[in-house]
Amino acid sequence: MNILIIGSGAREHAMAWAALRNGKVSRVFVAPGNGGTAMMGGRVSNVPLKATDVDALYDFAVSEKIDLTIVGPEQPLELGLVNRFRSAGQRIVGPTCEAARLETSKVFAKEFMRRHGIPTAGYHIFHDVAAANSHVERLAAGSWPQVIKASGICAGKGVIIALTQGEALAANTAMFESRIFGDAADEVVYEDFLAGQEASVFALTDGKQYRLFLAAQDHKRIGEGDTGKNTGGMGAYAPAPLVTPDVMRKVEERIIRPTLEGMAAEGYPYTGFLYVGLMIDNGEPSVVEFNARLGDPETQVVLPLLKSDFVDALLASLDGSLGSVPFEMHDGAGATVVMASAGYPDAYETGAEITIDQAVEGIGGVTVFHAGTKQDGQKLVTAGGRVLTVTALGGGLKEALDRAYEGIGKIKFEGAYFRRDIGAKAI
Ligand code: AMP
Ligand code: GLY
Questions:
Q1: Which ligand has the nearest atom to the CA of 290?
Q2: Cα 290 to ligand 1 centroid, rounded to whole Å
Q3: Rounded Cα–Cα distance for residues 94 and 391 (Å)
Q4: Distance (Å) of CA 248 to CA 196, 299, 343
Q5: Are 332 and 395 in contact (CB under 8 A)?
Q6: Cβ(417) – ligand 1 distance below 6 Å
Q7: Among 48, 293, 366, 373, which one has the highest count of C-beta atoms within 10 angstroms of its own C-beta?
Q8: pLDDT for residue 364
Q9: Euclidean distance between CA atoms 306 and 320, whole angstroms
């Protein structure tokens, strides 16, 4: 069986690693991949095609007789890559562009949740600066903070939390007039601020049936103690103790099932991975965001914790047998810590040589997944903001974290930055 994985992050490296565990897999292609997937060798090769080049990816899938395609990031989903593959009979895991609007349009997602009674923060939608400003001027004193979001996709960075009226007016100007988020802020959502703690739940679904991975917790801010700018995610751990069996039951009953039923009823059955970003307050979950894919870095901990076979589960999701395929998790816990380039999430330099001590993979349960790396002759160099993630499994979270940080200590590049407090809140 030949597999094509679309994307270039550590999430896609982890997917390639998980795919190799299936003995029926003869080749894994990663488009475009990264330095880590390039170095896997054997059955894995990179393909120099952009994740957004839908036509070229489709032609590649046909010419290389790809049996299963997995989409990592959101951009190809928005471009209708799944629609294109599926209409030509190519087997692919992911939602159509219509279904992916749960992520690619926050306006769609909020209105969908309102139509289906799915718990989420109250909101208002604006299309121009005048309407947004007059809303801000009318807000009562007790309404702050307000969460202001560009509706379109912004790599996790299109959100401003305004503490005061002045900050909200400045955000309106920045989004509608300075266009800091470009077309993504043609529509802007104002949300009430939700108190509580965040966690993410991931489902694999065929549109009706679904299976759940372990709940994870990401660390979105760049700084320790959850301070500073938002990033794509600086580390994650699973299972998240916050998502108790009771919370998970509520998430299934109030969020996942009505979402799948609602999307099917509206004519856009949702297939592939559904990422439910939650705020949990006193055991009551509400939706902060949906994503139409697996999370990064959450995948780097959630997939290593999947004990049963990943590829078999994906195939079952295409064959109508998702309900009966083995879908089991390892006992214990996992953690993943991101190493980033100095300056990320703002401007950063690339091209720094990376050295990885061979001993790193000798530490029990440790795996290194690459993101912004590339091969430069014999060297491995940095090529992005998030450079790599170090994942470790352990009997408990403390052991997993100790192992991940021991692994981090064996990887060097100039300006390497990582948070030292991943998972600290859960211990
Ligand atoms: P999003 O891109 O919608 O996930 O938002 C990015 C981050 O902003 C989230 O991970 C939360 O930390 C924060 N956030 C978003 N919406 C809200 C909300 N309604 N209340 C509180 N925090 C929020
Ligand atoms: N880690 C957050 C995301 O993948 O959107």
A1: 1
A2: 11
A3: 25
A4: 16, 19, 37
A5: yes
A6: no
A7: 373
A8: 86
A9: 20
Best mutation site among 110, 143, 151, 159 for ligand 1, i.e. most ligand atoms within 8 A of its Cβ? 159
Question: Residue 298 CA: which ligand 2 atom is closest?
Answer: 1
Residue nearest to atom 2 of ligand 2 (CA): 295
Q: Pocket of ligand 2, candidates 15, 290, 293, 296: which has the most ligand atoms within 8 Å of its Cβ, to mutate?
A: 296
> What domains sit in the chain, N to C, each tagged with a CATH number?
2-96 (3.40.50.20), 122-192 (3.30.1490.20), 197-319 (3.30.470.20), 333-412 (3.90.600.10)
Rounded to whole angstroms, the Cα distance separating 284 from 341 reads 37
Instruction: Give mean pLDDT in consecutive 10-residue pieces for the chain, a chain of 427 residues.
Output: 98 98 98 97 96 98 98 98 98 98 98 98 98 96 95 88 96 96 96 97 98 97 94 96 98 98 98 98 98 98 98 97 97 98 96 96 93 95 98 98 97 98 94
295 Cα nearest atom in ligand 2? 4
- At 271 the pLDDT is 98
* Euclidean distance between CA atoms 12 and 300, whole angstroms: 9
Cβ of 405 below 6 Å from ligand 1:
no
**pTM for the model:** 0.96
pLDDT score, position 400: 98
Here the tokens at position 120 are: 């989420």
What is the whole-number distance in angstroms between the Cα of residue 201 and the centre of ligand 2? 11
- Whether the CB-CB separation of 105 and 165 falls below 8 Å is answered with no
Give the pLDDT score at 157. Answer: 80
Structure tokens at 145: 């903070």
For ligand 2, whether the C-beta of 72 sits within 6 Å is: no
Distance of alpha carbon 325 from alpha carbon 302, whole angstroms: 18
